[in-house]
Design a protein that fits this description.
Blueprint (H helix, E strand, L loop, with lengths): L1 E6 L4 E5 L2 E5 L3 H13 L2 E4 L10 H13 L16 E9 L7 H9 L6 E8 L7 H8 L4 E2 L3 E4 L6 H16 L1
Parallel strand pairs: 1-4, 1-5, 5-6, 6-7, 6-8
Antiparallel strand pairs: 2-3
Bound molecules: flavin mononucleotide.
Length: about 170
């Protein structure tokens, strides 16, 4: 059975190593591509219908409002079916100590009972946050496997790449 690697990631201004930096490609996307290259599978990027602002202050304002009100923004598109996938890697940046709103929207859209879900999260010190737990709550009947937290700024260092590959392969073996 094929793997699916679903991720949300924010290119543009971001919070990295204690300062605002502009990322051409988001950290979580980089991690998702490392996983795809290691174990193979289809990549799907979760995108909000209304794109997030590249400007950091505007991004913080919008995401704070979404977080505080538990909003689940509409998505630009969905895979028509997840039937063919048994193992789904799910990547997100830690936002406000949990998953970004669009990931909640995505997970709530499907019945994932019986699937194996492998969460990975890039962050600036907050590890997986509440994301894994929220995933378990949202995806009733799914098997949420032990996740992988990666310091976003280090995602492409040899050491972290190796950790990501090892984790992805281990999950793959079952
Ligand atoms: C709006 C916002 C909120 C964030 N909240 C947290 C947080 O609560 N804890 C944390 O460790 N990192 C937090 N971060 C840092 C991101 O998790 C980190 O930069 C991540 O690697 C970004 O991934 P991306 O480039 O794929 O979007 C936040 C970043 C943004 C933009």
């Amino acid at each position: 059975m094929a793997n699916l690697i679903v991720y949300f990631s924010h290119a543009g201004e971001n919070w990295v190593n204690g300062q605002v930096v502009s990322l051409e490609k988001g950290n979580t996307q980089r991690a998702a591509e490392i996983i795809r290259d290691a174990v193979g599978g289809d990549l799907f990027e979760v995108r909000a219908l209304e794109p997030y602002p590249k400007d950091y202050q505007a991004l913080v304002a919008r995401t704070k409002e979404e977080f505080e009100n538990g909003l689940r923004p509409e998505l630009a598109e969905y895979p028509s079916s997840l039937e063919e996938y048994d193992l789904i890697y799910i990547g997100y940046p830690n936002w406000w100590n949990t998953m970004p709103g669009p990931m909640f929207t995505f997970l709530a859209h499907y019945d994932l009972a019986g699937k194996r879900l492998a969460p990975f999260c890039t962050n600036e010190g907050g590890s997986m946050g509440m994301g894994e737990r929220e995933m378990g709550r949202l995806c009733k009947g799914a098997d949420v496997l032990p996740g992988l937290a990666v310091h976003g700024a280090d995602v492409e260092t040899e050491k972290e790449k190796r950790r990501i590959v090892e984790w992805a392969e281990k999950v793959q073996m079952g």
